[in-house]
Amino acid sequence: MKSYPVLLAATLAFASAATNGADSILTNGTAANISSRALSGSGDDASICGLVIKDAATFVLIRAVGPGLAQFGIAGYASGTTFNVVNAKGASVTVGIAFNEFTASEQASINTKYLALGAFPLPANSADSYAYVCLNPGSYSVVARPSGSNPGIILTEVYFDSAGIGALEPTSFDTSAAATGYVKQLGAGGELDVVNVGQEEVLVLQTFGSGVPVIAIGTYRYVGGRWLLASEWRPQNFQLSYTVKEHNGDVVAVGNTTGEEWVLLTL
Prior knowledge:
It is a single chain. The chain is mostly beta strands. Helix content is 15%, strand content 44%. The strands form 4 sheets. Strands 1-9-3-7-6 form a 5-stranded antiparallel sheet, with no helix packed on it. Strand 13 (214-223) and strand 14 form a beta hairpin. The chain is globular, with a radius of gyration of 22 Å.
């Protein structure tokens, strides 16, 4: 007969703790990071990392790291990376921007965010790609590829930032009139629209920066007698302006100069 001393000891310890009145019930935790490392190529050879957002909109920091792996002695990494995030309908939600396209101060700020979320910083002017975006409840895929023609190893990471939501937009309004009043206080710094999606109305608050580029778009749904912030999207390119409309059951932002569509809210 085989014996299992380690398992038996653990079982007895658990039984003893329960008998003595100790709390033996585990509580639910919260995911902080998803990561996958794969040899990635162009086209169908892309690496794919899937994730699901439950219950409420959540800000996520997404990156595809190739050159940034050199600091850990990893060989065969992609010389540059790119990625796009698609939702369950196959619509593009956001794309990664090369880290070296940001200024030195912006790179430092991004690395500060990395460290706060438990991620390692990227080397200055690396060709790794990055995005920080609010995702609504649903399933998503991060599709990562080398920015060049040669395949290479890519580490795809998703960090959940539960503290991010509501950073640029109010989290709720008692009434639509209260939302209108808030926008009036902003003057030229904000705009409020109503988008009809089926039988539901969605309030859309656009916040402008200096020179009137959009710096954030918040969508609000009427829940429990209040308008609650359902999503908050921050464009990567602050030089663009957007028109927000309904498209195939989604609330989307359309770049007025590029025509690109970004899904803000899926109903």
